Amino acid sequence: MANKVNSLVSGDEEPGGDGLILTRLATRLQNRNPQLCTLKTFYDGRETIPTKSVPKNMDVTSTSVYKRFVDMCPMNLASTIANAVITSQHPTGFRLVSDKTMRSTDADDMWNRSGMNVRALNMFMDAAIYGCSYAQVWPKANPSYISRLSPWTTCLSDDKDSAVVYGFDEDAGVEYLTLYRLVRDDDGVVQRVYSRTAKQEVESRTLYSDSVDDEDSVYSLANDDTVKRPRFKAQFEWDGGVNDDWDFAVKCGCLPIVRYQTPTGKGWFESSLRTLGAIDQQRYQRFCIQEMQAFKQRWISGDLPEYYKESDPAVKYGDAQAGQKVDYSTLFQMGPAALWLMPKGATVGESGTTDITPILTAASQDIKQLAGATGTPLSILSPDVAGSAEGAKLTTRMLRLKVQDMNMRANDAFVLLLKMALTADGGSDAYEERFETTWEPVELPSELEQTQAFANVAGRLPLKTAARRYLHMTETEIAEMVQDAQDTSFSTVLAQQQSSLADSSKTVDDAMGASYLDGSDGLTGDTAVDDGDVSDGL
Length: 538
Prior knowledge:
The protein is an alpha+beta fold. It has 18 helices and twelve strands. The N and C termini lie far apart (139 Å).
């Protein structure tokens, strides 16, 4: 028998009702919050080894040294693993599926108006670190139709029929849980999408966020098992009525919230947290060994007297009195020019040197296994790795496949977001359009390789096709290139016409100059009148 779920909303216990749906999603969100804290802590390089590794039975100075090692040991490989995927995703625009060469200018414009050039990067980062990212479409364009939602505050059901978004108003001391649901008919067609909000008064927020203001709390929760996990109080009450202002979502047949996630729904390094912790632990041990070897332990053995005698040099010189207990902590002080006066038969011993090569070898092996497990090129995690260019291509194959997989998943999310945004903007048939996202290649060839490839197909393929495939130009860049070519052609024709007019003018000037030099006026004989004819007429 399934455990009974107590609704977070007072008085709303109806099975399948809004109260229980909100409770299940909010419970899933709060249960995921500690793991999100751990993932952020590893990505920021702020994880620590277990505090019980710090020796307790030693003086204050030594304890401080070991605690400093705890702060220094993280290698921050988690951010390298995530960033390898994030920095390889570059959407370049959208085009209609019905015409592969035709740009979807409306989608491009909505993308730019909504600031998705930056929001998409944040979504890529959320998915790489936390395993999923969210975005929401609003019915009004103020400030934009599309906004990014944080995985720390958003949870979408597996069937995508309901979602909850957490909010906190620090000034008012109120936290909110907004529920989004869609209603289908018997044929599965979406008939209605609505939302409603529950709120409660609190002294502080229940769920942590990825904000800078919450970093100390996040790191504390991730590194200390004794810190209390967040739990919602069952004191929420519905705030106002139901909001049905989601007609654009009904037309698109989905909630106004879209999720974009990895194949497993987990961050790229989430399954390797133990390996990352083991690497940090090995670094801590290496630091401790190196520190102990830099300040070696020494000891003196033999028949050491417990009290000073009259014959002792210290008594003779007045530094001690006979019968006084010998203080060996001051007698054998460390220093570059220190001299020790030892009794006859006493010997000095010193701790040996520990070989840390096995630890370094084990750490390098762990990094190699980490690279293979996460599909990250070893050259990224360990830059000193050398190899051939062909070998480098093989090692980056897994990364390329990861990026291509994430691009396909992002395409579905981006297209759905833009369809809803265009529909909300008044595009009546936008939800019926079929378009796709265009992406920059994961590995761009060099400029020399691009120009050589373009030169080989010049004249054999249309200019736009060659520029798109071999120069990897976006549709906007291609349009600018065509416009520049037209402007250049116009300028060339204009220059030719001006040159022709200049040549014609020069020919006339030369002819007129020649007539002046040979005494003629440049007119024909039939129109010429001489002086004799004029005198006769007079």
